[in-house]
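User: Run a structure prediction on this.
Assistant: Running it now.
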Amino acid sequence: MSVVSLPRRDVVVPRSQPSPTRTRVRPSTRVAPTPTTRRETRTRHAHSRGRLASISVLKKSVAIVVLAVVVSLFGSMLETNRQVQLHQLQSQVLQGQSAYAAQVGSLSNLSTPSEVVSQANALHLVNPTSVAQVPATSLDAILPLPKFSGYAPVTSRTTR
C-alpha cells in the first residue's frame, strides 16, 4: 500500500478577505511517508484478498481443467442420450412403414380380378364359367369388328 501525501500550504488566507491571488508555498523537501511494518500489510492483504486469492495458482488451474472436463462430459452425455432417442424413433418409423406395406399388400390382393370373381360367386351375384386373361396388344394394332349373334341387322359405321 502506498501513501500519497499532498503538498501542504504554509500560508493560509482566510476566505473572508478577498485576495486576487493566493500564494502557495511548497516545501523544498518531500515528506517521507510513515513507515509501516510488514506484519500489518500481510494481515491487511490476507483480509482484503478474500478466499479465492488464498488458493494457489496450480489449484485454480486444476479446478478449471476439471470443470471443463465435467462440462464436456455432461454435453457428451446429453448428445448421446439424444442420439439414442433418435435411434428409437427411427426404429418406430421403420416398424410403422413395414406394417403399412403389409396392409397395402394384403388389401391390394383383395382387389385382384380372381378375388372379385370368387367373392361374387360366393354371394351368388354372377355365375362365371371361367376367368380369362386378355392378352396384351399394341395400341397401334387394328382390332377386328365385333360379331353379334342377334337377329337385328347391324350396319358398320367404320370403314376399312
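The two ends are 123 Å apart (CA to CA).
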